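wait is this the right file?? whatever heres the structure
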C-alpha cells in the first residue's frame, strides 16, 4: 500500500508542477486555448493519443468488448490506430490548421460560424458540445474510480472528487500547454504500463499459448450447444461481426468529429509537424489501443472474479479490474497510474474544450457583448470548474443507479458529437458547395437520433446508433447541399484560396 501511495503522490506532484511551470503560456486566449498555435509534433501527437484513450477504453471498452468478441476485439484497436489516428491526421490535419488559422477560429463552433457565415450554427454547436461531453466525462470518472476501489479500497465517491480537483488545478493554471506537456508525461507512462500489464496477465495464465488454448475452450453466449461455438473467442471475427463493426466505426471514425480531438490540429505549428505527428500518434495508438483490446480479449478467463447483476449478466466495467486484482503490488500501482494518466489527459482535454467553447462561442457576443482577453480567460477558468462539478455529479448519480455502463456513456457522447460534426467539418474543409442548411440537417439528425434512441429505451444499441449517425451524415450533407441554394461563390472561393496560401506557408517548418 505504501508503494502504491508513493507512486500516486509522485504522479500528482509532477502533474501540478507542470501546471505551475506552464502558466506563463496561458496569459492570452490563444495561448490558453491553443498554446499559441506553436505546438510541436511530439506534444501534439501525445495530446491527441492521450485524449483518445482513457479509462473509458482501458476499463470500459476493452472489458466489455473483449468479453463479447474475444480476440476479434483487436480489430477495434487497429481501426483506432489506422483510421482514428493515421488517416485522420493526413486528411484533416493540414487543412484544419490552415483554414482555422485563416478564419481565426479557436474552437469547432467558431469554425462552423465563420465557415458558413452563421452565428446560429456557432451557438448550436457550442450547446451540443457542452451537453454531450458530460456523459463522456462521467464515463472516464467511472472507469478510473473502479480501479482505485480495487487497488486502494478507497470509496468511489472520494476517487471522483479527488480526480476532479486535480484536473481543475492544472488545467486552470496552465491551459492547453499544461495539458499537452502532461499528456507527454502521461502518454509515456501509458506506453510502458500497458506492455507490462499484458505481460503480467498472460504470465498469470501460463503464457500466451496456454491463455489462447483456455480461451478457445470457452463456449460463446447463446450457443445451442457448447461444442457448436467453442473457439468463437479466438476466431478472426468473433461471435458477433455486426455489432463488432458498429464499435469499429464509432471508435475509429468518431475522432474525425470530436471537438477535443480535432482542436489538436488547430494548435500544431507546421506541415512537417503534422507529418511527424501522424506517425507518432499512430504508433502510440497501436500500442495503447491495440494493447488494451488485446488484453480485453482474454476477459472470459476472469469470469469467476467479475461482478454479476441480479439477472446473472456480467457487469462489464468490473472485467478489467478483476483481471488485474491479483497482480504484484508494483504492477498494480503502475496500472493505477497508467489509467490515471490516460484519464487525466482525456478529462483535461474535455473540460478545456467545453469551457472554451461555451465562453468564446456562447457567452461572448451573446450574453456579454464586450469581453476583453482577461475576462475571457477568467470565464474559461470558471467554466472549467463548473463543467467538472456537473460531470462529477453525473458520475456519482450514474454509479449509484442502473443507468448504463461506461461504453454506453461514451457511445451517447460520441454518437451525438461526431454524428453532428464529422460530415459538416470534413465537407466544409474540402467542398466549397457545402451549405449551412446541410450542416443544420446533420446536427438535427444526429442529436435527434441519439436522444430518441435514449428516450425509447435504446431501441438499438447506443453504439450502433452513434455509428449510424456518423455514416448517415456523410450522405446527408452532400444531399442537402445539392438541394439548397449554393453559398456565395466569390466568398467561398476567396476563403479556399487564402487557406491554400496558408497551407503553402505552413510548409516552412518553424524549426
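ok assuming it is, sequence goes like this
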Amino acid at each position: 500500500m505504501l508503494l502504491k501511495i508513493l507512486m500516486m503522490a509522485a504522479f500528482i506532484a509532477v502533474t501540478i508542477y507542470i501546471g505551475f511551470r506552464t502558466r506563463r503560456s496561458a496569459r492570452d486566449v490563444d495561448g490558453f486555448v491553443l498554446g499559441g498555435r506553436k505546438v510541436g509534433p511530439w506534444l501534439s501527437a501525445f495530446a491527441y493519443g492521450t485524449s483518445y484513450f482513457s479509462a473509458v477504453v482501458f476499463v470500459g471498452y476493452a472489458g466489455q468488448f473483449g468479453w463479447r468478441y474475444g480476440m476479434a476485439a483487436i480489430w477495434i484497436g487497429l481501426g483506432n490506430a489506422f483510421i482514428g489516428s493515421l488517416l485522420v491526421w493526413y486528411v484533416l490535419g493540414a487543412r484544419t490548421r490552415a483554414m482555422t488559422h485563416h478564419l481565426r477560429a479557436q474552437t469547432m463552433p467558431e469554425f462552423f460560424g465563420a465557415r458558413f457565415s452563421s452565428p446560429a450554427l456557432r451557438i448550436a454547436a457550442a450547446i451540443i458540445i457542452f451537453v454531450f461531453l458530460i456523459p463522456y466525462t462521467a464515463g472516464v470518472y467511472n472507469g478510473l474510480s473502479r480501479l482505485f476501489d480495487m487497488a486502494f479500497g478507497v470509496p468511489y465517491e472520494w476517487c471522483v472528487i479527488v480526480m476532479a480537483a486535480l484536473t481543475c488545478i492544472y488545467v486552470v493554471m496552465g491551459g492547453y500547454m499544461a495539458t499537452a506537456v502532461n499528456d507527454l508525461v502521461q502518454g509515456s507512462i501509458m506506453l510502458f504500463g500497458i506492455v507490462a500489464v499484458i505481460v503480467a496477465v498472460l504470465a498469470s495464465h501460463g503464457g500466451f499459448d496456454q491463455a489462447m488454448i483456455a480461451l478457445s475452450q470457452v463456449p460463446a453466449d447463446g450457443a445451442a450447444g457448447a461444442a457448436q461455438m467453442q473457439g468463437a473467442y479466438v476466431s478472426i471475427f468473433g461471435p458477433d461481426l455486426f455489432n463488432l463493426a458498429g464499435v469499429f466505426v464509432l471508435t475509429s471514425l468518431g475522432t474525425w468529429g470530436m471537438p477535443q480531438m480535432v482542436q489538436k490540429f488547430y494548435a500544431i505549428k507546421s506541415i512537417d509537424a503534422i507529418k511527424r505527428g501522424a506517425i507518432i500518434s499512430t504508433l502510440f495508438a497501436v500500442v495503447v489501443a491495440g494493447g488494451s483490446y488485446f488484453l480485453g480479449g482474454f476477459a472470459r478467463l476472469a469470469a469467476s472474479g467479475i461482478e454479476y447483476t441480479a439477472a446473472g449478466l456480467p457487469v462489464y466495467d468490473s472485467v478489467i479490474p478483476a483481471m488485474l486484482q491479483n497482480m504484484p503490488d508494483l504492477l498494480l500501482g503502475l496500472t493505477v497510474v497508467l489509467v490515471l494518466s490516460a484519464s487525466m489527459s482525456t478529462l483535461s482535454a474535455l473540460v478545456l474544450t467545453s469551457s472554451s467553447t461555451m465562453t468564446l462561442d456562447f457567452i461572448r457576443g451573446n450574453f456579454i457583448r464586450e469581453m476583453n482577453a482577461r475576462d475571457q480567460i477568467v470565464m474559461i477558468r470558471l467554466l472549467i470548474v463548473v463543467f467538472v462539478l456537473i460531470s462529477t455529479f453525473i458520475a456519482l448519480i450514474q454509479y449509484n443507479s442502473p443507468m448504463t455502463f461506461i461504453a454506453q456513456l461514451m457511445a451517447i457522447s460520441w454518437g451525438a458529437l461526431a454524428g453532428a460534426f464529422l460530415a459538416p467539418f470534413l465537407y466544409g474543409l474540402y467542398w466549397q458547395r457545402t451549405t449551412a442548411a446541410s450542416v443544420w440537417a446533420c446536427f438535427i439528425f444526429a442529436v435527434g437520433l441519439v436522444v430518441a434512441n435514449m428516450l425509447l429505451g435504446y431501441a438499438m444499441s447506443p453504439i450502433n446508433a452513434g455509428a449510424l449517425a456518423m455514416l448517415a451524415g456523410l450522405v446527408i450533407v452532400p444531399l442537402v447541399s445539392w438541394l439548397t441554394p449554393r453559398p456565395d461563390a466569390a466568398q467561398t472561393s476567396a476563403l479556399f484560396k487564402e487557406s491554400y496560401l496558408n497551407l503553402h506557408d505552413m510548409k516552412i517548418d518553424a524549426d
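Confidence is low (pLDDT under 50) at residues 223-227. so i think its the right one actually
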